[in-house]
Amino acid sequence: xxxxxxxxxTGAPAASADAPAPTLESLTDWLIARVAVYLRRDxxxxxxxxxxxxxxxxxxxxxxxxxxxxEDFDLVLDPTAAWDYPTAAAFAEHVLDRxxxxxxxx
Length: 106
Description:
With 106 residues, the protein is mainly alpha-helical. Helix content is 49%, strand content 0%. The radius of gyration is 13 Å and the shape is globular. The chain starts with 23 loop residues before the first helix and ends with a helix.
């Protein structure tokens, strides 16, 4: 079964220079929306503090999630990031930290 990338969420943070920088809350919501599409779940049923693997996130979906981050934020993550930061809140915090580190180098 081939997974299709999720459709852009309304109000999703964007990486363009014109868009406001994502917040931890907006990035967590964005990640949950992506995970919900991959897992075919209602995003309201995904707890940001619960490990994503407990909802059925597998390695294919985790890699796709890293690809979504790269595509939407121009940020390359280690393919194991979803396992290293297993909750939506932890993953979002990691992405936000990395975005800040990248912005600090420009």
